[in-house]
């Protein structure tokens, strides 16, 4: 009998991401890591659908020519979520930052504009999350999902919308978006888990602040990404 053909996945090899001259907004940089303020609409890491034009392509260009540097994404964001992304510049740095995150030594705060008024004004959402069996692009609340927790605080409310500060205690895919929607407060502009907003072309979610220990020196670091233009007008109206 003829030899069985290998699986397609073993034949097709994705090319390595290439450096591209893309504008990236560096918030902090040293020999170990880079913190970047990602704009909405930019994919963080190459995928089979978006192999160029990603944040990683821009980082590779930014560090071109630097010996011993191997950039890798530590904290990811959805394409249409803006704000802080951490990039490790060496494998051992990436591993240390992942251990710190698993141990709860990395604090991540987000700003979200949601429909409705969350009650109570400060609280915690603990709902298990998993990929939908019907649509793997979506995440759903299910008893068999992974333990997930989001703390939140309402900062202001007006005109049927609220500005909410969220802190991730776990880092599941789409966690904030699904948790808030499950409680009846979908993020404005989030057409996947809520509804469109006339002033937005994406979900009103921004990775705002982050604090961590430096992976090498162990000194405390704090970063903040300014609220982008498309959200700032809505935030002013909610102040």
Give an overview in words:
Strands 1, 2, 3, 4, 5, 6, 9, 10, 11 and 12 form a ten-stranded mixed β-sheet that branches. This protein has a two-stranded antiparallel ribbon with strand order 7-8. It is built from five helices and twelve strands. A hairpin with an 8-residue loop joins strand 3 (72-73) and strand 4. It starts with 7 loop residues before the first helix and ends with a helix. The protein has 239 residues and is α+β, with helices and mostly antiparallel strands. The protein has a single domain (8-238), classed as Pseudouridine synthase (2-Layer Sandwich).
CATH architecture name = 2-Layer Sandwich
Radius of gyration: 19 Å
How many β-strands, per DSSP?
12
Summed up, the helix count is 5
Proportion of residues in β-strands = 25-35%
Largest sheet: 10 strands, mixed
Q: State the CATH topology.
A: Pseudouridine synthase
User: If you average the pLDDT, what whole number results?
Assistant: 92
Task: Specify the CATH homologous superfamily.
Answer: Pseudouridine synthase
Give short descriptive properties of this protein:
Pseudouridine synthase, 5 helices, single chain, 239 residues, alpha+beta, ten-stranded mixed β-sheet, two-stranded antiparallel ribbon
SSE order and pairing:
Blueprint: H1 8-11, E1 25-29, E2 33-38, H2 55-62, E3 72-73, E4 82-88, H3 91-102, E5 107-115, E6 122-126, E7 129-131, E8 139-141, E9 149-158, E10 161-168, H4 175-182, E11 205-213, E12 220-224, H5 229-238
Parallel strand pairs: 4-11
Antiparallel strand pairs: 1-2, 2-4, 3-4, 5-10, 5-11, 6-9, 7-8, 9-10, 11-12
